[in-house]
């Protein structure tokens, strides 16, 4: 499994946390492919490997977890072997197909895979969503299944990924301005994450002669989003570098575009909290504002109303101190992948065991 992206890194961390909390865990995944044909071939190969594993079942496992269009045949074998079926659901797949599809053929392929994924989801004994908005949408639009076992569990973090760097050392190493208040945004800089809101926010800071600089670490901010290069973009910056950056800034930004059924569960939020960041998140957004309010690690603003957001942020920066003020061991313990996987396990343990056909 590639470690190149935040999602693949998080998936690996999730697997390791699950492994620590169950007796036996067998993980099978498709090999990396770069063409549609290659992906189809690798997915078929994955199905063969999974079915063989289910039929042999030498480890005696009784839960089968899958996501996306993985499981088209193997789920039926799992059912025959009285193995409880769990599906992870991270998005409205049909909606994602329309957003990601760049032409008719790609949209058709994505929508076909999305339809298949949705059908598989509905046959599961338990579905684990990563956002309550997504769970509610599925249940309200005919996407429910025949049981009441749906739950949502947010993403988490790996405590070993925490940075212990000092603010002064990071500021010097990354050549960041010493005379400004710094706000960080880490990870993917895609438009749906609301990076264009940050460009407008920086413009507001500049026009009002406010000594604040937004720093984007990790992903490259596209020229069409920030043509005047108002944002300070440090890229590439790996996960460790992003963690260091969080330790050095005065606040961490978490906007999101309201263009999908679910805003998801942002991994960067838990990187912010893990490293003691003061978080400034989109208001009235499940997976964002509710977590900030629950743990008391920042403020919420409406990034679509730039003037008010800028005013709220400046007010917060006038009283906010260093990241040490938000560096809580007790809070970190609640958002680890181990804690999240225990939520999974408790829900799975409540499922009735099937009688073998």
Describe this structure in words.
The protein contains 14 helices and ten strands. The protein is α/β, with parallel strands linked by helices and 357 residues long. The protein folds into two domains: 6-155 and 338-349, Glycogen Phosphorylase B (Rossmann fold), CATH 3.40.50.2000; 159-335, Glycogen Phosphorylase B (Rossmann fold, 3-Layer(aba) Sandwich). The longest helix is centred in the first third of the chain and has 21 residues, at 36-56. The radius of gyration is 22 Å and the shape is globular.
Q: Key terms for this structure?
A:
357 residues, alpha/beta, Rossmann fold, 4-stranded parallel beta sheet, 14 helices, 44% helix, globular
Query: Judging from the principal axes of the Cα atoms, what is the shape?
Result: globular
Q: CA-to-CA gap between the ends?
A: 34 Å
**Residue windows where pLDDT falls under 50 for at least 5 positions:** none
What percentage of amino acids are in beta strands? 5-15%
Largest sheet at a glance?
6 strands, parallel
- Structural class, by secondary structure, is alpha/beta
Supply the number of structural domains. Answer: 2
